């Protein structure tokens, strides 16, 4: 028996931790207890030297000293402040008025607002609950299919896992030993493509199944001009004007820099050009709206002015946070700190920040941060002992005989993670599996930023897959179960069944899996926007003496190499 345990301690250890996770025991304590128990077993069997355990406290203290992890409480606080300041309600109301008159417009508004909330709040629960409370009654009132309404709300809420500044991407970068900024850059294009796929699905329903996603009736539009018109042409003109100016600035950004600095500037980076052009365009729209209101110029309609004042502040905050990270001006931790300060400033300016709101946000931030920290400590203890008993070699041998090389490895790993996501939280999967899979992927020549983005999009499905899809539970907690009288029309509206919520998620889970396949098939979607890594061959390095330096090291031809 002792010989069997000694020869198979790594798979036994892995099987025991999976058992505890599936049993529902607290994850952090399961990981710590399992790691320490098998560590002592390894000591008794002579598999682990006693001196090795002296390094364990240093590993734990290393977590406390990790500056990258500070971004988690900063971004969480930013999102909670914005969510509690009523930004979600204003966005949904305003964008719903813009898209409402077209078929599927309310669903498109939910997707658009979900993407904005993901880029600002980054909290799935806040997004799903806010959109469920505000949008779901309106969709049911005007005849939307219940599965479609439930599916678009839950799926849009999960965008917070894929769109930077996602907490999942921060954890991915930390566990894979890569830059958070590079992980954000790599995830941006796939995340935006996922939003586009959601929108295309709704457009397809509007074309082929129009009764499932009807348009809002004229009486539901509240922002109208005194003459009864919608005011949409004014919004269109403002959008075209600001877009044209932003594109022109991006095209001649190099010349503008040369003029400002007084010397020729080489071709600026594409991400810098995009961030500067979009920031300038949003600020220009806000300036025009402010001047129009102060001087009562009457150039903008009510809906155009409303859209500007509601959309520009969160967009500016997004550019402030992500722009500074992408440009290298700030680290993710510094960007998160700026975002938290910006969110507090926005809440104060809207007069929606009081001591109670701030206290609730700080309490929730502390709870989530401590939750992540304890899981990270537990996973560190587990992975430390697992590595000490050569567990990483056992994991590598598991994938030695997989057919298909890199593709076979990626397909197998993503299949396992997809099914684990039905039962286990995404933090647990990231902290337990990534330290084991990361070295294997790197040894196979897989770019770890690409690998991390694939896993992040896959983990997004864990919020939508029964039986433990958290987004499904969040919507169930706020969706009406029984029929109720509508406060606007006075008609009785049937409630939403749990089966409707589950059925609505199926199409969006398929879309997310399609996106996983696209990222696997086209790595340049992730790696195309990253800076090329400069590889240095130490065997070819030469140190040469400058010409004319006669310091006794030889002739002054400058060709002496050391």
TrEMBL record:
<feature type="transmembrane region" description="Helical">
    <location>
        <begin position="12"/>
        <end position="31"/>
    </location>
</feature>
<feature type="transmembrane region" description="Helical">
    <location>
        <begin position="307"/>
        <end position="327"/>
    </location>
</feature>
<comment type="function">
    <text>Part of the tripartite ATP-independent periplasmic (TRAP) transport system.</text>
</comment>
<dbReference type="InterPro" id="IPR004681">
    <property type="entry name" value="TRAP_DctM"/>
</dbReference>
<feature type="transmembrane region" description="Helical">
    <location>
        <begin position="274"/>
        <end position="295"/>
    </location>
</feature>
<feature type="transmembrane region" description="Helical">
    <location>
        <begin position="37"/>
        <end position="56"/>
    </location>
</feature>
<feature type="transmembrane region" description="Helical">
    <location>
        <begin position="448"/>
        <end position="475"/>
    </location>
</feature>
<feature type="transmembrane region" description="Helical">
    <location>
        <begin position="106"/>
        <end position="136"/>
    </location>
</feature>
<protein>
    <submittedName>
        <fullName>TRAP transporter large permease subunit</fullName>
    </submittedName>
</protein>
<feature type="transmembrane region" description="Helical">
    <location>
        <begin position="234"/>
        <end position="254"/>
    </location>
</feature>
<feature type="transmembrane region" description="Helical">
    <location>
        <begin position="187"/>
        <end position="208"/>
    </location>
</feature>
<dbReference type="InterPro" id="IPR010656">
    <property type="entry name" value="DctM"/>
</dbReference>
<dbReference type="Pfam" id="PF06808">
    <property type="entry name" value="DctM"/>
</dbReference>
<keyword id="KW-1003">Cell membrane</keyword>
<feature type="transmembrane region" description="Helical">
    <location>
        <begin position="148"/>
        <end position="172"/>
    </location>
</feature>
<feature type="transmembrane region" description="Helical">
    <location>
        <begin position="409"/>
        <end position="436"/>
    </location>
</feature>
<feature type="transmembrane region" description="Helical">
    <location>
        <begin position="501"/>
        <end position="522"/>
    </location>
</feature>
<keyword id="KW-0472">Membrane</keyword>
<feature type="domain" description="TRAP C4-dicarboxylate transport system permease DctM subunit">
    <location>
        <begin position="14"/>
        <end position="525"/>
    </location>
</feature>
<keyword id="KW-1133">Transmembrane helix</keyword>
<feature type="transmembrane region" description="Helical">
    <location>
        <begin position="370"/>
        <end position="389"/>
    </location>
</feature>
<keyword id="KW-0812">Transmembrane</keyword>
<keyword id="KW-0813">Transport</keyword>
<keyword id="KW-0997">Cell inner membrane</keyword>
<feature type="transmembrane region" description="Helical">
    <location>
        <begin position="68"/>
        <end position="86"/>
    </location>
</feature>
């Amino acid at each position: 028996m002792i010989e069997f345990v000694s020869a198979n301690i790594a798979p036994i250890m892995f099987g025991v931790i999976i058992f505890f996770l599936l049993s529902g025991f607290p994850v952090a304590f399961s990981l710590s207890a399992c790691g320490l128990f098998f560590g002592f077993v390894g000591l008794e069997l002579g598999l682990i030297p006693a001196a090795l355990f002296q390094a364990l406290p240093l590993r734990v203290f290393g977590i406390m000293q990790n500056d990258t992890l500070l971004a988690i409480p900063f971004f969480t606080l930013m999102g909670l402040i914005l969510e509690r300041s009523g930004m979600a309600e204003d966005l949904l109301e305003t964008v719903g008025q813009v898209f409402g008159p077209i078929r599927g417009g309310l669903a498109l508004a939910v997707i658009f607002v979900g993407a904005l909330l993901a880029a600002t709040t980054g909290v799935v629960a806040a997004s799903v609950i806010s959109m469920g409370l505000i949008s779901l009654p309106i969709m049911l009132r005007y005849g939307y299919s219940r599965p479609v309404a439930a599916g678009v709300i839950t799926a849009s809420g999960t965008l917070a896992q894929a769109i930077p500044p996602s907490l999942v991407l921060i954890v991915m970068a930390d566990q894979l030993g890569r830059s958070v900024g590079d992980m954000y850059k790599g995830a941006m294009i796939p995340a935006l493509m996922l939003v586009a796929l959601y929108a295309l699905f709704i457009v397809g329903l509007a074309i082929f199944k129009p009764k499932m996603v009807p348009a809002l009736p004229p009486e539901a539009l509240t922002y109208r001009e005194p003459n009864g018109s919608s005011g949409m042409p004014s919004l269109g003109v403002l959008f075209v004007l600001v877009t044209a100016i932003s594109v022109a600035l991006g095209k001649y950004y190099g010349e503008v820099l040369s003029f400002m600095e007084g010397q020729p500037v080489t071709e600026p980076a594409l991400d810098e050009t995009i961030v500067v052009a979009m920031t300038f365009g949003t600020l220009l729209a806000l300036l025009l709206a402010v001047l129009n209101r102060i001087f009562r110029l009457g150039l903008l309609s009510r809906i155009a002015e409303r859209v500007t004042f509601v959309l520009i502040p969160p967009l500016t905050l997004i550019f402030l946070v992500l722009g500074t990270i992408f440009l290298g001006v700030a680290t993710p931790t510094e960007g998160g700190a700026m975002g938290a300060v910006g969110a507090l400033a926005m809440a104060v300016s809207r007069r929606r920040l009081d001591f109670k709101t701030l206290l609730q946000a700080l309490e929730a931030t502390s709870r989530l941060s401590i939750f992540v920290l304890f899981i990270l400590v537990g996973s560190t203890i587990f992975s430390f002992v697992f590595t000490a008993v050569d567990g990483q070699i056992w994991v590598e041998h598991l994938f030695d005989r997989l057919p298909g090389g890199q593709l076979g490895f990626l397909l197998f790993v993503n299949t396992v993670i997809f099914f684990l996501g039905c039962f286990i939280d995404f933090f647990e999967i990231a902290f337990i599996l990534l330290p084991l899979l990361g070295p294997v992927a790197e040894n196979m020549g897989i770019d770890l930023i690409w690998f991390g983005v694939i896993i992040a999009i896959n983990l997004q499905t864990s919020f939508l897959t029964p039986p433990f899809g958290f987004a499904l539970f969040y919507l169930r907690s706020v969706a009406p179960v029984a029929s109720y009288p509508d406060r606007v029309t006075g008609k009785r509206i049937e409630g939403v069944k749990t089966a409707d919520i589950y059925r609505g998620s199926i199409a969006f889970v398929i879309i997310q899996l399609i996106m996983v396949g696209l990222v696997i098939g086209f790595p340049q979607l992730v790696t195309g926007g990253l800076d090329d890594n400069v590889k240095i061959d130490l065997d070819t390095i030469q140190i040469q003496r400058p010409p004319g330096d006669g310091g006794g090291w030889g002739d002054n031809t400058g060709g002496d190499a050391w």
